[in-house]
């Protein structure tokens, strides 16, 4: 399908990202474009999709290069995008296209908080920026002025402001094509209002419960794990140690994609009896991840980087962008999906995501625990117990339980990756 078949101006940023993954990227691949590096504007134009660059510039304040960063293509430090008539959408230069200065000030303050305190990837912040801009522009078109801050500061205005916000989401509900996109818009807008509440600049969150007005589905259509065979095929499709390690980090260690992207040699403890990765901060706080499988591969990667790059900063997945130390979570996602494409792996007919690697880890761990309990049945029977979990909890030390669990998990992981 060529560019002419798309109503580019009607597509949200989420829609454009989905169109890129489902339509444009496969076309580029068929055209012989090397997708291990960022495609150029000419590549996209030659494939018949030049309209996406115009839509990004006019409706989302993004260059094609900036958009490609949101779907996993790192900027190698030079501008391969020949669409040179657009400016970078930084926080300072971003055109919100609304006239209310107090709203713009608070929006930019919020985005700086995301960048500085939460340390979100730049591409993630830009995506949120685009959604918030869309919301405020529709608000302005419907209600005359985007004076969001003034209205949520007045407790007596809550009922009227909920009505105004609902009118905006009626527009978004009609404009956006998927429930997932609608829910992401709701989440980003609601988080902005929560930010204002925490700073005592809002008395209420007018969109807090608006999602309940619609029948948007919260179930993830891809809420499935890779099978053992699919994980094996993706791993076998890797033709470099970096890609092999990326698959192991997702599937054999169960890391989140942002944790993979920022993995640093200082986090590794490979010489102890219980090799592990240490995290000062994870989603649920500090912790460690046991390296049950893949230590030799990890050690080889460290040796390669240390021997071949005199300026190596210690990140296991360094970025080709001179302004960034390591790749982003979006790049991890894109590389994983390219390997899945190469292996012709689909889950429920769709391209698998990096999150499915983490789900594979959990599924495999549960299966390993089932194997362990089945093998403890004999001991349980000798003890006169009908429940093998009693043996696990009451007759084995914590060290023994941990070793048993890891042995069974290691055996299952080896069956998937050892001969792939």
Automatic annotation (TrEMBL):
GO terms for molecular function: DNA binding. SUPFAM superfamilies: DNA breaking-rejoining enzymes. Keywords: DNA integration, DNA recombination, DNA-binding. GO terms for biological process: DNA integration; DNA recombination. It comes from the Archaea. Residues 221-410 form the Tyr recombinase domain. This is Integrase family protein. The lineage of its organism: Archaea, Methanobacteriati, Methanobacteriota, Stenosarchaea group, Halobacteria.
């Amino acid at each position: 399908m060529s560019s002419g078949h798309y109503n580019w101006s009607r597509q949200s940023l989420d829609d454009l990202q989905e169109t890129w993954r489902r339509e444009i990227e496969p076309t580029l691949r068929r055209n012989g474009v090397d997708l291990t590096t960022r495609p150029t504007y000419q590549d996209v134009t030659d494939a018949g999709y030049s309209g996406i660059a115009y839509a990004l510039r006019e409706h989302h304040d993004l260059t094609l290069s900036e958009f490609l960063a949101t779907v996993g293509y790192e900027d190698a430090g030079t501008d391969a995008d020949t669409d040179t008539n657009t400016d970078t959408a930084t926080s300072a230069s971003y055109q919100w296209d609304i006239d209310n200065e107090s709203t713009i000030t608070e929006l930019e303050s919020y985005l700086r908080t995301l960048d500085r305190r939460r340390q979100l990837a730049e591409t993630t912040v830009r995506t949120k920026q685009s959604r918030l801009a869309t919301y405020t522009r529709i608000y302005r078109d419907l209600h005359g002025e985007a004076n969001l801050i003034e209205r949520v500061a007045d407790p007596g205005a809550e009922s009227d402001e909920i009505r105004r916000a609902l009118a905006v989401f009626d527009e978004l509900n009609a404009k956006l094509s998927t429930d997932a996109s609608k829910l992401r818009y709701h989440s980003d807008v609601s988080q902005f209002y929560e930010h204002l509440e925490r700073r005592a600049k809002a008395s209420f969150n007018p969109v807090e419960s608006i999602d309940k007005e619609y029948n948007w589905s919260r179930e993830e259509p891809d809420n499935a794990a890779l099978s053992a065979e699919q994980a094996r095929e993706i791993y076998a499709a890797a033709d470099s140690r970096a890609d092999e390690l990326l698959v192991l980090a997702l599937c054999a260690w169960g890391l989140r994609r942002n944790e993979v992207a920022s993995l640093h040699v200082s986090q590794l403890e490979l010489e102890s009896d219980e090799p592990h990765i240490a995290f000062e901060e994870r989603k649920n706080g500090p912790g460690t991840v046991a390296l049950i499988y893949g230590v030799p591969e990890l050690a080889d990667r460290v040796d390669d980087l240390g021997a071949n790059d005199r300026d190596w900063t210690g990140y296991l997945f360094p970025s080709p962008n001179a302004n960034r130390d390591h790749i982003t979570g979006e790049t991890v996602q894109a590389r994983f999906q390219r390997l899945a494409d190469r292996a012709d792996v689909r889950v429920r007919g769709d391209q698998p995501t990096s999150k499915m690697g983490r789900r594979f880890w959990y599924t495999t761990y549960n299966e390993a625990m089932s194997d362990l309990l089945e093998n403890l049945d004999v001991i349980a029977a000798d003890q006169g117990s009908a429940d093998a979990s009693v043996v696990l909890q009451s007759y084995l030390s914590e060290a023994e339980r941990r070793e048993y669990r890891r042995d069974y998990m290691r055996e299952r992981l080896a069956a998937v990756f050892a001969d792939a």
